[in-house]
Amino acid sequence: xxxTGPAGQHTVRRHNCALVLDAVAQSPGISRAGIAARTGxxxxxxxxxxxxxxxAALLHDEGPQQRAGPGRRGTSLSLSPHGPHGLGVEIAVDYxxxxxxxxxxxxHDLRIRHxxxxxxxxxxxxxxxxxxxAAARRRxxxxxxxxxxxxxxxxxxxxxxxxxxxxxxxxxWHGVDLPARLRRRTGPPxxxxxxxxxxxxxxxxxxxxxxxxxxxxxxxxxxxxxxxAGIVLDGELHEGSRGFxxxxxxxxVDPRGPRCRCGAxxxxxxLAGQEAILGSANATDLEELIQRLRDxxxxxxxxxxxxxxxxxxxxxAAVNLLDIPAIVLGGTYARLHTWLAExxxxxLRTRVVSAPWSRIEVLPSSLGTEAAVRGAAxxxxxxxxxxxxxxxxx
Length: 394
Description:
Layout: H1 9-26, H2 32-39, H3 43-55, E1 59-64, E2 75-79, E3 85-91, E4 95-101, E5 107-114, H4 122-143, E6 147-154, E7 157-158, E8 165-168, E9 173-176, H5 178-186, E10 193-197, H6 198-210, E11 218-223, E12 227-233, E13 236-238, H7 268-272, H8 274-281, H9 286-294, H10 298-322, E14 326-331, H11 332-335, H12 337-351, E15 361-364, H13 371-386
Parallel strand pairs: 3-6, 6-10, 11-14, 14-15
Antiparallel strand pairs: 1-2, 3-4, 4-5, 7-8, 8-9, 11-12, 12-13
Keywords: Kinase, Transferase
Pfam families: MarR_2, ROK
GO molecular function: DNA-binding transcription factor activity; kinase activity
């Protein structure tokens, strides 16, 4: 039997700091009195903790609140754009991307370095990643801000508890302990390295970008070379008990179809991924495909419609199983939304049993190919807000 003793003063203060910072994150512009009412802490305790958070550049004092009516106006508090930033990295099949995200969610210094990572030794790709991280840190230093940790998005199965990359079929990576390898290479300050599936991180970024007016239940389909899905239910990401959920690209669409890199036949990404669409349209790259679609080229339109049919077959299973009302198209699909949405909706209406009574939306991602790297950086910001004590002194 495990015994637990009373929480010490440091533990209580650490918990209360997180309460205060979260209250501001949830209600930007809130006053000290508002924080006390929201958290149940005394006004004196809130005032002391706010002073510490201001000194650590985690909070920003915006001056007196703007409100009508008599009475003393409280000080308006918000998360500080000058506090520690999350450094996001996306290791994709054909590029490495980095960005910085501050505590307010603003994105800075987004950089993309193109290059085929397929078939490359892990260490060779991580050399590129290490250089990209070092460059992002230098840019943070020039901006006068600290890096509070590193978030990494990868196209594969990532154990949610450990960050271990079990397999990334399109990179041909197996059993890679990315947190440990990147710690040794980069020695990140602040928080540990956080590794997650790129589709899940993209879905979280999209959820944040859509704000209060966006759907709270949706599947975010992230398509590049591979296809991944992030499932959001009631405003929360559902990645499965071990973090392996959302592998939509390996949904079996045609058992007699082409062999996939995962070893199976007829997986969705072999029929509806970027390479499959380009090959079917006989287009050299995405820009050519889009231009031909704008020119109403029949071969290009047929290629997209065939992809939509396969995608609809896979997504209808998710909609039937989970009763999800919205599909958000990200990555390559976001750029093809104009031509992809209608044939996809047609397939969904045919296959989803509840379609006659329950409207299904197909929406374009507002973040496109930036979603995963932004989500990776934002994952660090969430850990800072949840436990800011490491960034405070005194």
